[in-house]
Design brief:
The chain is α+β, with helices and mostly antiparallel strands and about 240 residues long. It has helices at about 25-35, 60-65, 140-155, 175-180; strands at about 1-10, 40-50, 70-80, 85-90, 95-100, 115-120, 125-130, 165-170, 185, 200-205, 210-215, 230-235. The chain has one domain: Deoxyribonuclease I, Chain A. The longest helix has 20 residues, at about 140-155.
C-alpha cells in the first residue's frame, strides 16, 4: 500500500512583505498561493498568532480556513507582542499527534524551535517536522542546526518509520548534511529566497520518497520574499517488513 501527497514549505514573512506591514490582502494572497499549489500539507515559517503587529490575527487558523486545509498546528518559537511568533503546519489530513520542541540554544540569542505533526493518510501515517533556524550569525545558525540534529536523532531512536522535515534553514544543503548526515535532501540548489539564495529545504529519511521537487514563484508579485518549495511525497506501508 502506498500514498502520495504534495508537500509545500513557505516562509510567509508574517503577511507583511507586500506593503511592509500586515494587511488582509497579503494574507489572502498567501492563501491563494497555497490553493494554487495544490499542496495537501503546508509547512509555514514566520507566522504570527495574536500579535499586535498583525492585528491580533491567528494566522494558522485563518490560513487553514482560507486555503481549504482544515487541520492546523502552531509551533511556538517565542512570545511576541501580546501573542506568539513561530511556525505552523496546515493539513488536509487529520492530525494524530503533534509536539513543539524548543531548542536548548547556547549561542543563538533569539532562540527557535521545531515541531511535528503525525498525519492520518487513511491507512498510513506520516510525520512532518517544521523549523526555522537562526539567521543571527553563522555560529547561531550552527547552534540551532545542532539542536535540530539532536531532536531528529532522538525521534528516530523511538520510531522505525521515516519523516520529512521542512523549514527555512538559513543555510545550504551541504551544511545541513554535515550536521545531519543520515538524511536525504530534496534539492541542493533551488533558489528559494528572493531568487538568489538556496536556504529553504526538505530533508527526509527512508522509506519516504520525494520527487518532482519544484518552486512556485511567490516572490515576483511580492506575496512574500521566499518562493514556495514543493515536492511529491510517497509513503509506503512497511508493516511486516
Amino acid at each position: 500500500m502506498e500514498k502520495t501527497f504534495t508537500l509545500a514549505s513557505l516562509n510567509i514573512c508574517s503577511a507583511h512583505f507586500t506593503a511592509g506591514r500586515y494587511t488582509e490582502e497579503n494574507l489572502a494572497a498567501l492563501a491563494g498561493k497555497i490553493r494554487e499549489s495544490g499542496a495537501q500539507v503546508v509547512a509555514l515559517q514566520e507566522v504570527d498568532q495574536g500579535a499586535e503587529r498583525s492585528e491580533r490575527v491567528d494566522m494558522p487558523a485563518r490560513l487553514s480556513a482560507m486555503s481549504g486545509l482544515p487541520y492546523q498546528y502552531f509551533i511556538k518559537i517565542r512570545d511576541f507582542q501580546g501573542g506568539a511568533y513561530g511556525t505552523a503546519i496546515l493539513s488536509g489530513y487529520p492530525i494524530l499527534a503533534a509536539e513543539t520542541i524548543p531548542y536548548p540554544v547556547t549561542v543563538a540569542k533569539q532562540g527557535t524551535s521545531c515541531g511535528y505533526v503525525t498525519l492520518d493518510l487513511g491507512g498510513l501515517s506520516v510525520t512532518v517536522f517544521n523549523t526555522h533556524l537562526s539567521v543571527e550569525s553563522e555560529e547561531a545558525n550552527t547552534d540551532t542546526l545542532r539542536c535540530l540534529s539532536g531532536v531528529l536523532r532522538d525521534w528516530r531512536a523511538t520510531h522505525t518509520d521515516g519523516f520529512v522535515c521542512c523549514g527555512d534553514f538559513n543555510t545550504t544543503a551541504e551544511k545541513i548534511l554535515r550536521y545531519i548526515p543520515d538524511v536525504r535532501t530534496a534539492h541542493t540548489g533551488l533558489l528559494t529566497y528572493a531568487h538568489i539564495n538556496s536556504i529553504d529545504h526538505m530533508i527526509y529519511t527512508d522509506p519516504l520518497v520525494l520527487s518532482h521537487v519544484r518552486l512556485l514563484d511567490t516572490c515576483t508579485d511580492r506575496t512574500t520574499d521566499h518562493s514556495m518549495l514543493l515536492a511529491d511525497v510517497m509513503v509506503t506501508d512497511r508493516m511486516g517488513k
